[in-house]
């Protein structure tokens, strides 16, 4: 799974290859966390693998309504930096999460499954703010039934 480091990172975490990238998408969160902590896998590689899979599949299955790719990459780089510094890490540090399109996330489109709200940008965070505290890169919003109430 190891190839020479890419210039996009600090150079200490190995970069993945295409078959390994697909493995990252299906790796259990506990195994992924262990690999990140052991510096065998970079959070940047993980988010790259997730987005490669999203771009390949989403046009066909349409499960994701809002991709936050730039934000996810920034958060993944911050996660990688924390690992390399030896910071104390959250339980699932560096593991990307998808958030249902019901939770407000400041500056991110929140449609509640409705085209009526397709241009609504939340002004504040709801429950998703707790995920950011745990150092989880936020990668995508998942579609929901139209106007489904939060918590349902």
Describe the structure.
With 152 residues, the chain is mainly alpha-helical. It has one domain. The protein has five helices and three strands, in the order H-H-H-E-H-E-H-E. The longest helix is centred in the middle third of the chain and has 19 residues, at 43-61.
Radius of gyration: 16 Å
How many domains make up the 3D coordinates?
A: 1
Query: Largest beta sheet: what is the strand line-up?
Result: 1-3-2
Ranges where pLDDT stays below 50 over 5 or more residues in a row are: 1-14
In short:
This protein is mainly α and 152 residues long. The chain has five helices and three strands.
Secondary structure elements and their pairing?
Elements: H1 18-26, H2 29-37, H3 43-61, E1 64-67, H4 69-85, E2 97-100, H5 128-133, E3 138-142
Parallel strand pairs: 2-3
Antiparallel strand pairs: 1-3
Characteristic key phrases:
152 residues, mainly alpha, three-stranded mixed sheet, disordered N terminus
